[in-house]
From TrEMBL:
Record bears the keyword Oxidoreductase: yes
Designated gene of the protein: ypdA
Keywords for this protein: Oxidoreductase
Protein name as catalogued: YpdA family putative bacillithiol disulfide reductase
Pfam families (alphabetical): Pyr_redox_3
Entry annotated with the keyword Oxidoreductase: yes
């Protein structure tokens, strides 16, 4: 019987595992994909917004030769930390549901069942894109994850959204030689776009290298075009590829099956939990990392979410009694 099973091997799930293990608890992480799966899905060579010391876990220094770490640096760092701490991992195994009570939970996965006294849910938000809810959204040339520009050179590409991910994708695609049109629901490039990215995009739009349509909604996607409604009427924008970078949300159905209740007072449907311990309304079930923000996916990130690990581990160490292995 484990003391604690952690669902999700992202930076915060790893932080939880190593803090709990250092307190003498018997832990395992179950991860439906690869180790740090979400970061594997980020764009090639993506630069983090945070400086490296703010992404560190377990006191391991994160040395990088430049100011901000790249995706590849972070992958290397978190995977090394997991190895150094000998964190038990069950990769490519998806958690489906939970039954039982604190001290005697059974977690069902797509490969079997695991007994544990406590569960930490650190499942993030990056697996479910926010849908546009328009016809054609499921066509194969419509993507919700941007990787790199090279397959789009010489192509018409429509990027939907005007936050950091869309801004960076639009700039990179343009510089690689794609003809980019940005479709934005609001009146401008989001003011929340980082201060070193926003002027670059605004200036490329001003000089006409990127066409942008503001106050514009997508009404349909066809194999050759994106249909939009602009303030001046309907418009057909040619598109061989479409990036709908309109954000992501946590798997609320999974959270329900794990007994994690949403806060009825919170528009973002964030889980109800005690901020001092991160324990949910179901004793023995904890939430950590970005999943704690519900649909407000920028409420918690690595910088602040990594600290959930110490809170939960300290609480568990006070409560859980580890039996001999
Ligand atoms: C493009 C981009 C750039 C970012 N830059 C920064 C930055 O500079 N600084 C910063 O602090 N934050 C940044 N963030 C946010 C940060 O990456 C996330 O906050 C971070 O990944 C959260 O870690 P986490 O461990 O909570 O969740 P995740 O890293 O998302 O990990 C969740 C894990 O749970 C797994 N999982 C989900 N469901 C199941 C299941 N049913 N069974 C088993 N496993 C499951 C997933 O596969 C995943 O590996 C960025 C995010 C994005 C998208």
């Amino acid at each position: 019987m484990l003391d604690v099973l952690i669902i999700g091997a992202g930076p915060v799930g790893l932080a939880c595992a190593l803090e709990a293990q250092r307190k003498g608890l018997r832990v395992t992480i179950v991860e439906k994909g690869a180790l740090v799966n979400s970061i594997i899905g980020y764009p090639t060579n993506m630069e983090f917004f945070s400086t490296p010391e703010l992404l560190e876990i377990g006191g391991y220094p994160f040395p990088v030769s430049h100011y901000k770490p790249l995706r590849e640096d972070a992958l290397d760092y978190y995977q090394r930390v997991a190895r150094s701490e000998n964190i038990p991992l069950r990769l490519y195994e998806r958690v489906l549901s939970l039954r039982g009570e604190q001290g005697n939970f059974t977690v069902t996965t797509d490969k079997g069942e695991i007994q544990t006294r406590n569960v930490i849910v650190a499942t993030g938000f990056y697996d479910l894109p926010n849908p546009l809810d328009v016809p054609g959204e499921d066509l194969p040339h419509v993507k919700h994850y941007y990787k790199e520009p090279y397959e789009h050179v010489g192509q018409h590409v429509v990027v939907i959204g005007a936050k950091n991910s869309s801004a960076k994708a639009a700039l990179q695609l343009t510089r690689a030689g794609a003809q980019v049109t940005l479709v934005v629901r609001g009146p401008e490039v989001s003011p929340s776009v980082k201060y070193w990215i926003r002027p670059d995009l605004v200036n490329r739009i001003a000089e006409g290298r990127i066409t942008a349509h503001f106050n514009t909604c997508v009404t349909a996607i066809t194999p050759e075009a994106v249909e939009v409604r602009t303030p001046d009427g309907p418009l057909t924008i040619p598109a061989q590829f479409v990036y709908a970078l309109t954000g992501y949300h946590p798997d609320e159905a999974l959270l329900g099956r794990l007994g994690v209740e949403p806060d009825p007072q919170d528009e973002a449907r964030a889980p109800l939990f005690d901020p001092a311990t991160h324990e949910t309304t179901q004793p023995g079930v904890f939430v950590a990392g970005t999943v704690c923000g519900g649909r407000a996916t920028s409420r918690w990130f690595i910088e602040n979410g990594r600290h959930h690990a110490q809170l939960i581990a300290a609480h568990l160490a006070g409560h859980a009694v580890s039996l001999p292995r």
